[in-house]
Specification:
Elements: H1 2-26, H2 28-40, E1 47-50, E2 63-66, H3 67-80, H4 94-106, H5 114-141, H6 145-167, H7 181-201, H8 206-226, H9 229-250, H10 254-283, H11 287-306, H12 316-319, H13 344-377, H14 384-400, H15 410-466
Antiparallel strand pairs: 1-2
Helix pairs in contact: 1-2, 1-3, 2-3, 3-5, 4-13, 5-15, 6-7, 6-8, 7-8, 7-9, 7-14, 7-15, 8-10, 9-10, 9-14, 11-13, 13-14, 13-15
Length: 467
């Protein structure tokens, strides 16, 4: 089996990727197709996994080459070899990503399981490739409409799959194309709220408006039918943030008020339909789940205090087992590997030390603050809805990550890198967007004045003829 995988890997890198790169260089439409494929597979993980450890309890279980990377590599290479494209190897925020990456690398000093540590290091390399491909593609295209279309289509596909799982397969907590409903919830928090921001603020075509409306509505239904307690609270909080910021930055309008009223009625109907199950999820939650979260959270603090550089990325389950004193008697001594703490922040603190957690937070905050600046600069201008949606989405995933570690999973991690690339592209071009909007408004005003002058001259001429 390993020989087959090696042959497949060589075939991909020696034949498939070079051919895809050549096609992208010769025919620009293939470059758009690669971007579409890369973006779609952030929601549906297909991978060629080397040294797989499916039973390992960690954030990475092998050296996985995913379908996202398969499309990202030729996309990036085709732009690198083209004279029409300007490539930035260190887009905005790269410095903070490398600081976090350094924390991951240094944590290997204390790692017991080096293979498992290597899984995480390897994964982060490919995530940066995804970030580079997305940033350079969007920065050179200068058009986010195609991106929004793709996001809508992905959400609609997720909804169709989830609808099938709910009403044809009878699955109680749907997970759509994801491995777990919490991963689906985190994914929807970014792209679903982006669609809502576009709906409420951007000047878009009727087709795109309908697609965004259906995609956002589908995301709300999916969140409800995941019955994820954290997802429900966080997503509805994110919707409130988008609505409040849309009115605060761009004022009242007929479209916003109409969407608010219709959305409120639909939301109440959906929640009313699913309310009995939602109440059960909150009131009948097993006590063991709560106890496990508390025990592992306390243990993580002790781990982080004992290891300044952390005990190794992707090594948490080793130290949470009964063989170590951190969890007390929670796990029996014969249990080989323990659970993983249900928050990415304490997980990183334990595996990479408190300074590693600081680097993670700095990385998160860079894009958060960059998007806030974009919201003020682009107020009542194009992309205002996009940055409001991104701000709400990032708020949600940062909030939700205090309850889940799903951002370390390949799908959610890749989506996060795509969103960060989008934030960086808007930050780099926000002055150009602002100036282009002013020029367009000035041109519209000139046309209005000319039209008014033409009407006045025509009126005067008609009066002269009548005399």
């Amino acid at each position: 089996m390993p020989i087959i995988k090696i042959v497949a890997f060589l075939f991909l890198f020696l034949y498939v990727i070079p051919i895809m790169t050549v096609l992208c260089c010769m025919f620009p439409v293939f470059r758009h197709a690669c971007f579409a494929g890369m973006l779609y597979f952030t929601s549906n993980e297909y991978s060629l996994n080397f040294v797989p450890m499916p039973k390992w309890r960690g954030t990475a279980r092998g050296y996985a080459f995913t379908a996202v990377s398969l499309f990202a590599v030729p996309l990036l290479l085709s732009m690198f070899f083209s004279i029409r494209y300007k490539i930035k190897l260190f887009p905005p925020g790269s410095f903070f990503y490398f600081l976090y990456y350094l924390a991951i690398l240094l944590s290997g000093i204390n790692a017991i399981h080096m293979h498992q540590w290597g899984f995480e290091v390897y994964k982060m390399f490919w995530m940066y490739v995804t970030f580079l491909a997305t940033f350079n593609y969007l920065n050179n295209c200068k058009n986010l409409t195609f991106f929004v279309y793709l996001v809508c289509c992905i959400l609609i596909i997720l909804f169709v799959v989830g609808f099938y799982q709910k009403y044809r397969m009878g699955i109680f907590q749907i997970h759509s194309t994801f491995a777990h409903q919490n991963s689906l919830a985190l994914y929807l928090e970014l792209f679903g709220l982006l669609c809502l921001g576009v709906l409420m603020n951007e000047q878009i075509s009727r087709i795109l408006f309908c697609l965004c409306l259906f995609a956002f509505g589908g995301s709300v239904l999916l969140i409800v039918f995941t019955y994820s307690r954290g997802g429900l609270v966080v997503y509805f909080g994110g919707i409130a943030i988008v609505c409040a910021l849309s009115i605060l930055f761009n004022g009242f309008s007929t479209r916003r008020l109409t969407l608010l009223l219709i959305g409120l009625l639909v939301l109440l109907s959906i929640v009313g339909y699913a309310l009995p199950h939602i109440i059960l999820r909150f009131t009948k939650a097993p006590a063991a789940s709560k106890n496990t979260r508390i025990v592992l959270a306390v243990a993580s603090k002790r781990m982080a205090n004992d290891y300044r550089l952390g005990f190794g990325a992707n090594n948490y389950s080793e130290y949470s087992s009964g063989r170590y004193p951190y969890v007390g008697n929670f796990y029996a001594e014969h249990v080989q590997y323990g659970g993983i703490v249900e928050t990415i922040y304490l997980l990183v603190a334990a595996e990479c030390g408190w300074w590693g957690l600081g680097m993670l937070i700095l990385w998160f905050l860079y894009y958060y603050l960059s998007d806030i600046i974009s919201m003020f600069v682009l107020r009542k201008k194009p992309c205002s809805g996009i940055v409001i949606g991104l701000f709400s989405g990032m708020t949600c995933i940062y909030w939700h990550s205090s309850l889940e570690w799903s951002l370390k999973q390949c799908n959610n991690f890749a989506e996060q890198m795509v969103v960060y690339a989008l934030v960086g592209v808007i930050a780099v071009n926000r002055k150009n967007i602002k100036n282009a909007y002013k020029r367009n408004q000035a041109r519209i005003e000139q046309q209005r004045i000319k039209l008014q002058q033409g009407r006045q001259s025509a009126l005067q001429q008609s009066r002269g003829n009548s005399r």
